[in-house]
Amino acid sequence: MPTYPLDVFTVACENVGMFLREKTRTKDGKTHRYWSVVENRRVSGGRVVQRQVLYLGELNDNQRAGWVRTIEVVSGKEHQPGQLALFPDDREAMPVPDGETVRVRLDKIELRHPREWGASWLGLYVWDMLELDAFWRKRLPLSRKGTNWLNMLKALVCYRLIDLGSEFRFHREWYVRSAPGNLLSEDYSLAQKDKAYRCLDLLLEHRDELFD
After folding, report:
1. The domain containing residue 150 runs over which residues?
2. Closest C-alpha to 15, from 64, 68, 57, 77
3. In 10 A of CB 26, how many CB atoms?
4. In this structure, is residue 30 part of a structural domain?
5. Mean pLDDT rounded to a whole number for the chain
6. Number of structural domains in the chain
7. Half-sphere exposure of 18 toward its Cβ, with a 13 Å CA cutoff?
8. How large is the average pLDDT for residues 93-97?
9. Which residues pair with 116 in a beta bridge?
10. In terms of C-beta density within 10 A (0-12 exposed, 13-18 middle, 19 or more buried), how is residue 183 classed?
11. In contact, 87 and 93? CB cutoff 8 Å
């Protein structure tokens, strides 16, 4: 039985901030400005890749200022680190030296935006049962920039098995809310929007051989 790292607390990449990105378009002699919330993510090798989080469309000055303040709050730019002690709200808080205490309402805790692990784990398990690594490893070597095309293919196979969709949707939505990256010890750079298409191109020359 194959083993994959299942530590849900492992952080594959580090968020290094969000910002508003402006794109302009001239139509009928008038310039239109469109805005998006974009996230920077630090990945392996110290590189930073960008992902569009939310498309906002055209904004007036007040709306844009409001989004700037929202981003500052969400990204925690003004947050100062400190120690907190958490206690259920139905119990007396114990004294904690040099720290704050926060009462938590356990009945109000909700799990939001969970990652789907089981289906991805099962997809990779079936991959190993079919011994597909033996065929693809020598045909999909690492790129000169360090891209692991074999892992890219495994992630795409899981995507096709679990939630079939476009390569752009794989980059934009599915990879970040699913588990292949963690199971394969890969960060978000694996899901850059051009890599899925490039990986599919690499498969074409081996298609007939695989079927044989």
Report:
1. 118-211
2. 77
3. 8
4. no
5. 78
6. 1
7. 19
8. 53
9. 178
10. buried
11. yes
Using the 8-state DSSP alphabet, how is residue 41 labeled?
E
CA–CA–CA angle 106, 111, 116 (5° rounding): 150
For residue 163, being part of any structural domain is answered with yes
Residue 161: what pLDDT?
93
21 located within any domain? no
Beta bridge partners of 117: none
Q: What is the pLDDT of residue 8?
A: 28
What's the CA gap between 34 and 139, in Å, rounded?
Answer: 43
Tokens of 53: 């989080």
* Tokens (6 digits) for 101: 């205490």
Give the percent of the chain with pLDDT over 90: 26
- Please indicate, yes or no, if residue 144 is contained in any of the structural domains: yes
Q: What is the pLDDT of residues 175-189, one digit of tens each?
A: 888 888 889 988 888
Give every strand in the sheet of 14-27, ordered side by side.
14-27, 30-42, 48-57
Pairing of the two strands 84-88 and 100-104? parallel
Paired tokens of 41: 């993510």
Mean pLDDT of 30-51: 79
Residues 109-154: pLDDT tens digits? 787 767 788 999 999 999 999 999 999 999 999 988 888 999 999 9
Q: pTM of whole model > 0.85?
A: no
* CA of residue 13 relative to chain centroid, distance: 8
pLDDT tens by residue, 4-24: 333 322 233 334 578 888 888
Give the torsion through C-alpha atoms of 55, 11, 153, 116, to 10 deg.
-80
